[in-house]
Amino acid sequence: MLGEYRIAGRGASAIAADIEAAVAAGALEPGHVLPPLRELAQELGVNPNTVAAAYRLLRDRGVIETNGRRGSRVRPRPATTGREAIPIALPPGVRDLSDGNPDPALLPPLADALAAAAARNAAAPALYGGSPVDADLARLARADLDADGVPAGPVSLTSGSLDAIERALLAHLRPGDAVAVEDPGWRSMLDLVPALGLRPVPVGLDDEGPLPADVERALAAGVRAVVVTDRGQNPTGAALSAARAGQLRALLAGHPDVLVIDDDHLHGLAGLPLHSLAGATRHWWLVRSTAKTYGPDLRLAVCTGDAVTSERVRGRHRLGAGWVSHLLQRAVVHLWETGAVDTTATAAAYSARRQALLDALDRRGVPARGRCGLNVWVPVPDETGAVAGLLQRGWAVAPGSRFRLASPPGLRLTVSPLTARDVEPLADAVARVLAGAGADRLG
Description:
The chain is an alpha/beta fold. The protein is built from 15 helices and 16 strands.
């Protein structure tokens, strides 16, 4: 099971630290099965309860996964190694469509917003004991939520969407609980769930969102939370339709204690109406980020949810970070109030680039998806060969392995860097690479 490696340690913490260090060093590789509790306890000369405690620590840290009688094994992708750490070496002159970033040319300059925030701070500095949420930001955010039909709830702030999702999961779940996640889905989400000691349960999706049959199976299997991207799903571009949202709400009605998290990270730039699952169960949480509209370094997400979830998240936040910087909050208020970004025009620009690539691929007989957002998903038979082939032709794309649990292979192409001149050459390159892969299979 472990090859040449021999686990060491006497206490639970020491045993866990030894195994975690071996995983980090590559001495224990993903998929390696750990010895049964009693076997390792006998080898180390300790009580089996000590080994059990060590395994619990490792599971809670996301290093191993346990599956009853099948035993414990090193996670297929240890939580200490995020999916974004998988490198793609870019030769000179290669165009990078792999990073998922917005187009810097469509982001606003921040100088005026930061200056306005600094001036307001000089007049009324944020101090200990003050409100964690700027009153103007709360007012603007709540009005926006109301306009989209999001149920009433307190406005909270976190340092980005992933921070908001993590805090909501920790507010309700415990290590070992199961979470339904989209597959393919946001790579950070797929890493976060096991890193928290939770079990991801993959749910397939089409252009209208998660598949009801998969969600129903996940609920029947006992998931404690469901995470859904409302619009601009990463990596497929799916967007929750009114019909699909209604189907999912009907399923969730039979599981009122399940936490439902809506990730509306593309709010403002989606170009499609919001059909969320907010309020479908007793505990819900909806998250909106400023990253795509105003820039990834403005680490601020607006959140709302039921009273219990909101208070748990805000209470725990107070004990850690305390609050999101009021300088950032006031900068966002300035950007929002002054209309620094024409969101309609920006959404249209991304939509035009995405649709142009989809149309060009379709003309070449290449199936692809991308209903909304910054990305296009292209199914492929062999990710490694397709990534390498496109790299040779001057295009760097993200392999689907970064975004998948059990779904078929594919490639994610970010459209934000594309110009009109890029579309046809890129589509040609994709078609030729996939045609070559088909020829290889036939051979």
